[in-house]
Design brief:
The complex is a heterodimer of chains A (about 230) and B (about 100).
Chain A: H1 4-15, H2 19-35, H3 40-49, H4 53-64, H5 69-80, H6 82-94, H7 99-106, H8 111-123, H9 131-155, H10 168-177, H11 184-199, H12 208-227
Chain B: H1 2-23, H2 31-37, H3 40-44, H4 46-54, H5 67-82, H6 85-102
Helix pairs in contact in B: 5-6
Classes of the chains: A mainly alpha (about 230), B mainly alpha (about 100).
C-alpha cells in the first residue's frame, strides 16, 4: 500500500514530461490574449476562472472578432464538455470521497492529468488514496499553466510565431495514446474519432470536439459487441 | 461585460468537470456504458490530435507535404518505441523545426 505522499509524487511525476508541451502552449495562450488587445489582468484571470487551454484562446478570438458573449460562452461550454466524459471515467475511482472533496478535486481535472491519473488508477485499483494522484497531476498542471500563461502575457510579442509552438499540443496527446496503437479495437476508435474531427471541423461552436468522441464511443460499443 | 462573460464561461466549465464526479451516481451507469467508457482516451484525444496536425491556423486543410505531418510521424515512431513522453514531444517539434528552418 502506497502512502498519500508517494501517490501524490507519482501524480506529479506522471504529468511532469507533459510540461514540454503545456508550458509553450501556455505562453502562446497568454501572448495571443495580449495580441488580440485584451487587458493583461483579464487574460490572466481566465487561467484561474476557466483553466482550460484551447477554450481560453477560442473565447478571446471570438470576442475580439465581434462575436456575441452568448456565442463565446457556448463555444467554451461545448469545447469543455469533453470533461463530462473524463468525469464519468474518474467517478469510479473517486466514489468514496466526500461531496466537498469531489467538488474541490473536480476543478483540477484537465486533459493530461485525467489521462495520466486514469492510467495509474487502472493499474492500482486497490490503493486507498488514489485521489492523491489526481491532486498531484492536476495541481502540477495548474501551477505550470498559471506561470506559463503569465509568462506569455509578459513576453507577448517576443514569442516568435514562426516556431509553431502550438504544434506541441497534438504531440503531447500523441504521447498519451501512442501505446494503444498496438490494440486493434483502440486503433479503430482513434481513427473514427480523428476522421470525424476533420469531417465536422466546421460544425458550429467547435462542436467537432465532442461530436467526434461521441461517434467514436458508439463505434467502441459496436466493437465491444462484436468482440463477444 | 467581458468579465461577466468569463465568469459564466468558468462556471459552465467547472460544471462540466464536476457533474459526473460529484452529482451523478455511478450506479446509474449500466455495465455496458462502463465498458465503453474504457475507450474514452482513445475516443477523445484524436479529436485534438488530428485537427492539430491537418488543419492550419486559418481553418483549412494543410498540403500533404506539410512539415507537421512529418513531425507527427516521427513523434509516433519515437513515442511508440521509447515509451517516453519527453522524447515524443521533443522529437516531433525538432523534426518539424528542422524542415521549416533548415530545408
Amino acid at each position: 500500500m502506497l502512502s498519500k505522499k508517494q501517490i501524490f509524487s507519482k501524480g506529479i511525476l506522471a504529468v511532469a514530461p507533459h510540461m514540454f508541451s503545456v508550458i509553450p502552449f501556455g505562453i502562446v495562450c497568454g501572448a495571443i490574449g495580449i495580441e488580440l488587445g485584451f487587458s493583461p489582468i483579464l487574460v490572466y484571470a481566465m487561467s484561474i476562472i476557466i483553466f482550460g487551454g484551447a477554450s481560453q484562446i477560442v473565447f478571446l478570438q471570438l470576442l475580439s472578432g465581434g462575436a456575441s458573449a452568448l456565442i463565446a460562452v457556448t463555444s467554451v461550454g461545448v469545447i469543455n464538455s469533453r470533461h463530462l466524459l473524463y468525469g464519468a471515467v474518474l467517478s469510479e475511482y473517486l466514489e468514496k470521497l466526500s461531496f466537498i472533496k469531489k467538488l474541490l478535486i473536480s476543478y483540477l481535472v484537465v486533459d493530461q492529468g485525467f489521462a495520466e491519473s486514469n492510467k495509474f488508477f487502472q493499474k492500482n485499483r486497490n490503493e486507498t488514496h488514489l485521489h492523491y494522484h489526481l491532486l498531484g497531476s492536476g495541481g502540477t498542471l495548474w501551477v505550470c499553466w498559471q506561470i506559463s500563461t503569465l509568462a506569455g502575457i509578459i513576453l507577448g510579442s517576443f514569442v516568435p510565431e514562426e516556431l509553431g509552438l502550438k504544434f506541441a499540443v497534438p504531440l503531447t496527446f500523441i504521447a498519451i495514446v501512442v501505446q494503444d496503437i498496438k490494440k486493434l479495437d483502440h486503433v479503430i476508435v482513434m481513427i473514427t474519432c480523428g476522421l470525424s474531427s476533420l469531417l465536422f471541423f466546421d460544425a458550429p461552436f467547435k462542436s467537432y470536439i465532442i461530436i467526434s468522441p461521441i461517434i467514436a464511443l458508439f463505434v467502441a460499443a459496436l466493437v465491444l459487441r462484436l468482440k463477444k | 461585460m467581458t468579465w461577466f462573460t468569463i465568469i459564466i464561461a468558468g462556471i459552465i466549465t467547472y460544471f462540466m468537470r464536476m457533474t459526473m464526479v460529484a452529482l451523478v451516481d455511478r450506479d446509474l451507469l449500466g455495465e455496458r456504458v462502463k465498458a465503453v467508457l474504457a475507450y474514452v482516451p482513445s475516443a477523445v484525444f484524436p479529436a485534438i490530435i488530428f485537427p492539430g496536425i491537418f488543419i492550419n491556423d486559418y481553418g483549412t486543410f494543410i498540403e500533404m507535404n506539410d512539415p507537421k505531418i512529418f513531425g507527427a510521424i516521427v513523434a509516433i515512431l519515437v513515442g511508440y518505441f521509447s515509451r517516453n513522453v519527453i522524447a515524443t514531444i521533443i522529437s516531433g517539434l525538432f523534426s518539424y523545426w528542422i524542415i521549416i528552418f533548415l530545408l
